[in-house]
Design brief:
By secondary structure, the protein is of the alpha+beta class. The protein is built from ten helices and four strands. It has three domains: 2-100, Orthogonal Bundle (Arc Repressor Mutant, subunit A); 105-150, Arc Repressor Mutant, subunit A, CATH 1.10.10; 152-219, no CATH class. A four-stranded antiparallel beta sheet has the order 3-2-1-4, covered by helices on one side. Helix 7 packs across helix 9.
Amino acid sequence: MNKITGIEAQKDPNRVNIFLDGQFAFGLATTVAAWLRIGQQLEDEKIQRLRSEDDRERATQRALNFLSYRDRSEKEVTDNLSKAGYSTEVIENVLERLAELSLVDDRKFAKTWIENRNEFRPRGKRALAYELRQKGIDQVVIEESLGSSVDEDSLALKAARKYYLKLISLPRVEFKQKLIGYLARRGFNYTACDAAFRILWAEVHPDGDHQNYFDEEIE
């Protein structure tokens, strides 16, 4: 048996130091140490449970801080906690708690990611799928999320409008090459890229003979 001889606050107001038999033993979160009292006897098994509970609490607080900046996928949270040295058991426990609170949900994450991209940095389905795979999202979830929320034609045009003014002085062939290259690097399919080119070229050259231009391939 070990006797608690001291409970002292750390600089972090959410943690305390526990002293057993006159010596520092370990630190605990205040929520974990709430029921401890000086003079209380602790068995080794109880000490191990307290330390394990503290590991879960610290990992949870780290995950909550990580989530405070933006939504995260389950893989992102797992990787962050793994780098901090937490065990697989602790990480799984934290993920379960976060899932119960709807703070980690890969379907919600995928939906939010796609909406954010559509609004601020349009991408084609190919690029979006790649980004979501990098975040650890399951392929089935990716396909479900992309199916109804990505209109490549309108998004390609939206992305092109952010770029094409840099190209307006170029001849048609170079204009088309650069615009379609720009869109292709953002994951848009050729049909969407070509449609965006046709619309913007017509806007830049409203009096031109566009039909002949449109039927030509990129040189």
